[in-house]
User: What shape does this take?
Amino acid sequence: MKQGLIFNIQRYSVHDGGGIRTLIFLKGCPLRCPWCSNPESRKKVEPTTWIKNGRTEKIGDWRSVDEILDEVLKDEIFYRTSGGGVTLSGGEVLLQSEFAGECLKELKKLGIHTAIETTGCFPVERLKEITPYIDQVLFDLKIMEQSEAQRIIGIDPERVRENFDYLLKQKQLQVIPRIPLIPGYTTSEANIQRMIEFLTVRQIKEVHLLPFHQYGSSKYDYLGWEYTMRDVETLSQNEISEIQDKFEAVNIAANIDGLE
Assistant: This one.
């Protein structure tokens, strides 16, 4: 049976899709975002280790679709009563698109609401394989300028646009853009303006803003990696509100939704 590499399962989440949800974190991501709060998920789809509190721990376990279903069905009653469901996160879900598709397909058979979080960094063919089984996509938009996006995080904005536009045509699912507010990277006036132009052309009426935090910084120590964002201050409420106002000035509802 098909297996996927999972590095975390988080129950009772309320930030990653509607209602109460279970988040399944799939390992592996080709991007190199300096602010990544799950650095243990990056790079290849293979188990890794870190040293935490003096002990070596393995990150990532191979799990079958049936094992995932057994886990998420423990909270089925909460999905039904809250309008929640299951969200596949990462890492980057599309790196394990075949396994993700199998999970989503079985969840849909059970009538469970399904969502994925993605950066849209792979060819659109990977999305096409799994969209029949998705109800909602939380789509990250980060750096919009071509050369900066490729240099800093290793993503091609043109591919992101292609994936985003493909998803908008799939009327059976809901697409919610999510914008991490990262000082020095995504919050510049030029980048915010590019976001607004991108979204208004596509008649998007809602975005989720995810303010930067330092909660994942200790993970870099466990991995023995340099964390270049350690001295970056979080945005003030006034700074967040100013960005929020820019979206709402063009009739895009900008919700502060969880943390990046």
Q: What stands out?
A: The longest strand covers residues 3-13. The chain has one domain: 3-256. Residues 128 and 258 are 28 Å apart (CA to CA).
